[in-house]
Amino acid sequence: MDSFSAHYGYFTWTLLAGLTWLLLFLFRKDLRNKLLWVSLVVSPMGLAERYFVPVYWNPGSLFDLIDKFGFGIESFLFP
Fold first, then answer.
1. What pTM was estimated for this model as a whole?
2. At what angle do helices 32-42 and 3-27 cross, to 10 degrees?
3. Which of 28, 31, 34, 63 has its CA 20 to 30 Å from the CA of residue 21?
4. What phi-psi label fits residue 55: left (phi over 0), alpha (psi between -120 and 50 degrees) or beta?
């Protein structure tokens, strides 16, 4: 496994999950309110990552934000 895929794997899979969310949002109008509500409720839980990194796991993060602050962009995109 090269260093790029190991370092940005978390971000890559987060983008794929975000694409799934976006497709559901665009094509399933009956789910839009639920998607938005759940996203707003769950996104702040990304701050909890500070308590799990690096004790539980230590993923590579975009701009190494997880190492610097304990959470990264991915923490809020895919909590």
1. 0.60
2. 140
3. 63
4. alpha
